[in-house]
């Protein structure tokens, strides 16, 4: 998901669509259909149940996600010679049935949508619910293929807010935004008037979904708050204790601040960009920033932050080996930069997907040891740096 969103931020004109009823369009071979049998009595509970077999892919099967992705990619590969750019976009710019992509201008983006529709039509699927940051592109999309809020769109209308995977995308301003609208929680709980239960605290925290880490500093505080509740062994239906209310109210006061935060979807309208990763290991914990380096003439007026990695905290892991392995995977991700591999990735650089090596695990342990030392002996280290006894 993070990789798809990061690549979605590169094109000047963004487009978004999804495959209609993707699972229902993929059939199971006859020999395997008996594994999808189910019994149905309806409201007549005493009668012998009817036996049904699902011939299409079902949602709750563990193999369904990988099956539909395989079919999607096989269908795309059949037309690679005719639609090379579209096939590459399908393989790297889709998250399940959701497509996030774009082009350098409205004309190219319009043609890209037509090619997507044609390729999926040949595979027996329909890609619809299209949205774009360009009104010209939206106008050229057939109304029945547009997103629900754009069916009656005209050039004088404002582009409706869309959901780009788990992020709110405002095509009109071409920005990502956050909201704190809670439909299933009492207003008194959200405003802090009523003392919540442990379950209600979790309901407040969960909607803050931020795969690119734009509000990581806010999300981390929420996770710490819930971790403290968990360690207190309070029941799910029990209200917070007096010593826990202050932290919760402080967090709620900060909740509204994220609603004014806006992040440009596009890194820069300048098409000559290069991506890099800049880890700051001088002080721990610090975020890892993935930044876009722009041409010198534009650098003074445009800075693009691609993503932020949350600080690594040992207490959140149930075992030492789990912490080491998690940190190893993060280090590999940053080193290989696999999420930023669109056209910004080094050409020809291999993507490492094998198991962790002994060297990587040892390096991870070394990083954690140094981090703990910096945290536990901060005063002594500062004194040594200043050459004080």
Automatic annotation (TrEMBL):
Q: Which InterPro entries match?
A: Retrotrans_Pao
- Pfam families in alphabetical order: Peptidase_A17
- Source taxon at top rank: Eukaryota
- Quote the PANTHER family the UniProt record gives: PHD-TYPE DOMAIN-CONTAINING PROTEIN (PTHR47331)
* Name of the featured protein: Uncharacterized protein
Species assigned in the record: Allacma fusca
